[in-house]
Specification:
This protein is α+β, with helices and mostly antiparallel strands. It has 2 domains: about 90 residues; about 240 residues, BirA Bifunctional Protein, domain 2, CATH 3.30.930.10. The protein has 11 helices and 11 strands.
Length: about 350
């Protein structure tokens, strides 16, 4: 009987090892350990043996059953891994392939414009500063030389927030910042001149029409140094406008205007041509307002701990949506925030379009 068990083990081992798929392995399992399997039948035949034979054959058959069950489990694990590897190889996706054109995403014109502005001003030696969207009254108004009762402080222009219970005075009054000039204040408080910086970010005012939105983006530039004058301001703006609109020359004119944080202050117009239903920058007989600017008011410098007798500076700012509309012929600012994929398909940019040299498909 011992020789029979050894021969059966060798036969079943060869059969199980030869199984090349899960179905063949299951057939081998049933043939060996099933209700009518060969090992099962031999175990059931122990009852017809005398006690001495059972003492010898019984443990050998149990050992055979355990060995065959372990071998089947091992082979099953190997076959399952083999099956999974084959499936993964067959279903592999080549992620290096280009996506389907109809599924390609688009860069929003505002995001693209911010990248363009970053590129232009980085080339001019400016650093980027950032600050909080929720500001206190001191940084948003008082430090910028806004007098008490100024219209910008009124409820119809500003989104006021609940007061900060842990602060006192003007620093307790919270607003959604009405301009990014508040970031310039924070920058001047924490940096020593000379420096040149730009600030880009969302701002909030209670206003909405074709050219205004309750939330919009601004870019503001600030340069503080010794012996700075309006000529430096004009040269900086001229270089910026030529680079952004990609033209060789942009004639400008400065019109006196009042801003609490600059003195003197000016609105800047650029020459353009509005004839034939088109807009061409840098040529024609028309003029268009593009941004506000001026020399930083001495009171603002004092509020930031900078001596106005030693340092001077200039500042300028404009709406990012506005200059994006001009460059890319977008008629209504409000459509930029409609989340309409059809609009984005038309005005959006391909992900690999280079800033300041972007062209739509």
């Amino acid at each position: 009987m011992t020789q029979t068990i050894i021969a059966l083990k060798e036969e079943l081992t060869a059969l199980i090892t030869a199984a090349n798929d899960l179905q063949a392995l299951d057939e081998a399992r049933v043939g060996a350990l099933g209700k009518k399997g060969r090992v099962t039948e031999m175990i059931e035949g122990l009852g017809a043996m005398n006690p001495d034979e059972r003492k010898t054959v019984g443990p050998a058959l149990n050992a055979l059953k355990d060995d065959i069950a372990a071998l089947i489990a091992q082979q099953e694990k190997a076959l399952k891994k083999q099956t999974l590897d084959a499936r993964l190889a067959a279903e592999r996706v080549d992620v290096t392939l280009s996506p389907r054109p109809e599924k390609r995403g688009s860069i929003h014109p505002i995001s693209q414009t911010i990248e363009e502005l970053t590129t232009i001003f980085a080339d001019m030696g400016f650093t980027i500063a950032e600050g909080p969207d929720i500001e206190d009254d001191w940084h948003n108004f008082t430090a910028l030389n806004f007098p008490p009762g100024h219209p910008a402080r009124e409820m119809q222009d500003t989104f006021f927030m609940p007061d900060d219970p842990e602060a006192e005075g003007e620093r307790a009054k919270k607003v959604l910042r009405t301009h990014t000039s508040s970031v310039q204040i924070r920058y001047m408080q924490t940096h020593k001149p000379p420096f040149r910086t730009i600030v880009m970010g969302r701002t909030y005012r209670c206003d909405s029409d074709m050219t205004h939105c309750p939330m919009f983006s601004q870019i503001e530039g600030l340069v503080i140094d010794k012996n700075i004058h309006m000529g430096h301001l004009k040269g900086c703006l001229n270089d910026f406008l030529k680079a952004y609109f990609e033209v060789d020359d942009v004639p400008m004119r400065f019109r006196p205007s009042f801003f609490p944080f600059v003195e003197p202050g000016a609105e800047v117009d650029i020459r353009c041509d509005k004839s034939a239903g088109t807009l061409k920058i840098g040529e024609g007989d028309d003029w268009m307002e593009i941004l506000g600017c001026g020399m930083v008011h001495p009171n603002v410098l004092k509020n930031c701990g900078i001596d106005p007798e030693e340092y001077q500076g200039f500042a300028f700012g404009t709406g990012i949506e506005r200059i994006a509309m001009l460059k890319h012929a977008i008629p209504d600012m409000r459509t930029m925030f409609d989340s309409d994929t059809r609009w984005l398909d038309h005005y959006g940019f391909a992900p690999l379009d280079r800033p300041n040299r972007a062209t739509r498909d």
